[in-house]
Amino acid sequence: xxxxxxxxxxxxxxxxxxGEAAFSYRLGADEFTERLVLDPVLLGSGPAPAALDAALxxxxxxxxxxYYKLAAPGRVVVERPVTAAQLAVARAxxxxxxxxxxxxxxxxxxHRVEFDAEVRExxxxxxxxxxxxxxxxxxxxxxxxxxxxxxxxxALAVNxxxxxxxxxxxxxxxxxxxxxRLDPLLAERTAEGGLNGHVPVTAINSAIxxxxxxxxxxxxxxxxxxxxxxxxxxxxxxxSVNHQYSKSYAFERLFTAxxxxxxxxxxxxxRQLSELATVAAVAALPLRGDILSCNRSYTxxxxxxxxxxEQRWCLHCDKCLFTFLCFAVFLPPAEAEExxxxxxxxxxxxxxxxxxxxxxxxxxxxVGERAxxxxxxxxxxxxxxWGSQPVVRLLGAEAADAAQVTDATVARFLPPxxxxxxPARYLESLRRVLEASRSAVx
Length: 442
Description:
Helix content: 25-40%
Strand order of the largest sheet: 6-4-1-2-3-10-9-8
Low-confidence stretches: 300-309
Mean pLDDT: 93
Radius of gyration: 22 Å
């Protein structure tokens, strides 16, 4: 396989005595090695070698997007044979998963990548683990709902933060931790002019979760990605660009097939839910005060050196504004302000930030569907408790007009709908939690 002008997915290793995995890549004259430091709780058992190899290959493939993007050569050489299902996941991660990266860097959209890889048959089927579900958590409302629906599961945090630990503790579930160590050379090459931008983080964390599942005997891996992840962020020359592509149902189906080869189920518990439906349930839960869905809080600048500073809502980023808007539908102003530590709907300077939530070009962030944002703001404009807020007064009529185009209302976003891959027993558990939260519905 020729490496000229290509990004190379090279060697990888795992030392079960130390819990450190290493994944190497080559780009031009540079070689990069990313490392995972695994929770000691994962190192006591002896997983099936075929399953472990397959899980390591999956991590190796998708984690490479962080280094590929420095030059985005459009060609990937994979040195180890991979299965067709693994290759399908990789193709999706490097193309649609890098759609936002391509758009922001003014590269052709869709981003097209040629793969040079030997395809092998999958190994013998592996029996699923017996330690229950593994739930990757980010610390937000989605994680909180999943942990309540599956209270006997185990939470997983990649590069754990206080927010992730808080929501797991509030739900009363154990937490497994994995740390990613990016190669320092990546930051150097980026500073020297290498391309930078969004990578499919959910794909990377999903692959890490399958590795954890194999090592720890967990099954299934359960994510909490709502149906809003299927809506494109913007369109470039007729091609859809989706910030949340690796949270979409299209990607979920590809990854489910690859996860099955390592003996692990994989699905999104909230696939049929709108963001508003998830918020309706979480607003009625005691742990609502323990969640955090602000991406700025996860940066070193906001967390302080070493990540020791307290994390909190910034109340200015797109994700904060969207999340506050949704919770405002189900909480009175005093309770919402106490939960978030402020009230962005009282600040007229943030009106344009809220308006972007239903604009043709949505923000590059994990926000909901345009129509549900408009419906939520229109709902607040018609309410006694929120109608007098400055931002609601400014945008209420505009939001109502935008919602009317699709006849969108808060009530229409609450029932589950759409395709999903949720097993019956988990679907029933989710139904019970949603029914218990109906008292919060306006």
